[in-house]
Design a protein that fits this description.
Chain lengths: 80, 248
């Protein structure tokens, strides 16, 4: 298998003949493209879950405050 | 048959099933991609005219050919949206547009990098290149149209129509190299003989890369569709359960 490798040394492989920039920039771009498209959805998902949790917390807090206010109003109503 | 079809259209069902498919698809993609990239970079013989730039083909051709799958996919999803009003179809169509735009942009960029040493120019107003650029702008158009219309139902319908019309461009891209005399070369014919200009030692790794990039396309489409499902179904109890349980 290894006798079919087209390059005689690592330096030769990295150089890619006359086309160092062309070959490696294409493979670099491809790597970035794949990584970004796999990780961006993960980031968005976490962001969504955080937002929804904060919203649930706010809603719960709001419900609690309203309940407290209603109780107080109810109590003062009775007193008068 | 119909029951199956409509169950597939249920966002919750799709979310649960795709969660099971994803690890397998990721493994398959990683294996194919590693084999393909190593083969392309180390073992593919230099082209007698193009030298080592032949290795660019193993990125450019898979990305460009899969970018062509995007409009037909959006058009089919569009028909399903218009006829059966299936919610999932519209979510897939929405998520496919930006992914397709990415693929088209990468195909254009890698093509330019390949064209510079081989044709002596980064860009030419050639039929293949121009029709690809039109596809890119059409995809940007679909994304802009969706964000411009406030009502989600109206946006879904408008985007479905634009996707169906835009799919006309796909055969034009495909056959541009045969219909017009282009700088871009026509598709090579597969040959079984070793030592042929397009023999198995050249196209087997190309085929592997095409499958690998296909897996990647499906994975990124599933990932962003799952996010879209969560977003649109956020008031459903099953989504609230996921939000409550997941570690972030």
């Amino acid at each position: 298998m290894f006798e079919h490798i087209q390059f005689n040394s690592v330096a030769e492989f990295l150089q890619m003949g006359k086309y160092t920039f062309h070959v490696w920039s294409v493979y670099g771009l491809f790597t970035v493209f794949i990584l970004v498209n796999l990780f961006l959805p993960r980031v968005q998902r976490r962001q969504f879950i955080r937002e929804q949790r904060n919203k649930a917390l706010r809603d719960a807090q709001l419900a609690k405050n309203t309940a407290v206010e209603q109780e107080r109003d109810g109590a003062s109503g009775e007193a008068s | 048959m119909w029951q199956w079809f409509f169950r597939l259209g249920s966002p919750k069902w799709f979310y649960e099933m795709s969660g099971k498919w994803l690890p397998w698809l990721l493994v398959l993609m990683t294996v194919l991609m590693s084999v393909g990239v190593f083969w392309a970079l180390l073992f593919v013989p230099q082209d007698y005219q193009q030298g080592d730039t032949i290795r660019i083909m193993y990125v450019h051709v898979p990305v460009a050919s899969i970018s062509l799958a995007c409009f037909p996919l959006m058009a089919i999803a569009g028909v399903i949206t218009l006829v059966w009003k299936m919610k999932l179809a519209d979510m897939v169509a929405k998520c496919a547009a930006p992914i397709g735009a990415w693929f088209t942009a990468v195909a254009l960029a890698t093509g330019a990098i390949w064209g510079q040493p081989i044709w002596g120019t980064w860009w030419a107003w050639d039929a293949r290149l121009t029709s690809m650029l039109i596809q890119f702008f059409l995809l940007i158009g679909v994304i802009a149209l969706r964000s411009a219309i406030e009502s989600p139902d109206a946006a879904a319908k408008a985007c479905a129509l634009l996707a169906i019309v835009g799919a006309i461009n796909v055969p034009i891209i495909k056959y541009s190299v045969e219909w017009w005399n282009t700088l871009h070369q026509p598709a090579s014919e597969f040959s079984m003989d070793e030592g042929n200009a397009f023999g198995p030692e050249i196209w087997v790794p190309l085929l592997i890369m095409i499958f690998a990039v296909y897996c990647f396309f499906v994975i990124s489409l599933i990932l962003s569709t799952r996010n879209e499902i969560l977003q649109r179904e956020r008031r459903a109890q099953w989504v609230m359960d996921i939000v409550a349980k997941e570690q972030v």
